[in-house]
Amino acid sequence: MLTRRALITRGSAVGAGVVFLWPRPAEAEAEAAKPVLATTKSIPLGGGKIVKGKYVITHPKKGVYKCFSAICTHQGCTVASVSKGTINCPCHGSRFSATTGKVVNGPAKRPLAAKKIKISKGAIRLA
């Protein structure tokens, strides 16, 4: 006859084995499930691209890509362009650093929210 302790111990060991043997999706499959925001080829060096009105992806220097919220922190307008190292809001003239998202010229007082991205085979996705 099994004691309660033996039953719990054996059940835990079996449960742990099931967890470790459970098939996990390959990393590539999980990554592919996240939509591609842009390709590295579509982001000009020294410039950037507004994506779906939600994100702005910049390419401040060779091999470096950054992603920020495209919503200006001043009054919620969508930024319109990236040029001369800044992300530019058309509503009231706020400009943000294309490298850090920090305010370069107000009236905005807070930086653009940074978004983590992952680049694989030239595809830029949220991390």
TrEMBL record:
Keyword annotations of the record: 2Fe-2S, Disulfide bond, Iron, Iron-sulfur, Metal-binding
Domain Rieske: 35-126
Metal-binding recorded as keyword: yes
Keyword flag Iron: yes
Matches recorded under InterPro entries: Rieske_2Fe-2S, Rieske_2Fe-2S_sf, Rieske_Fe-S_prot, Rieske_Fe-S_prot_C, TAT_signal, TAT_signal_bac_arc
Coiled-coil stretches: none
Required cofactor names: [2Fe-2S] cluster
Name of a matching Pfam family: Rieske
Annotated signal peptide: none
Role: Iron-sulfur subunit of the cytochrome bc1 complex, an essential component of the respiratory electron transport chain required for ATP synthesis. The bc1 complex catalyzes the oxidation of menaquinol and the reduction of cytochrome c in the respiratory chain. The bc1 complex operates through a Q-cycle mechanism that couples electron transfer to generation of the proton gradient that drives ATP synthesis.
UniProt-recorded name of the protein: Cytochrome bc1 complex Rieske iron-sulfur subunit
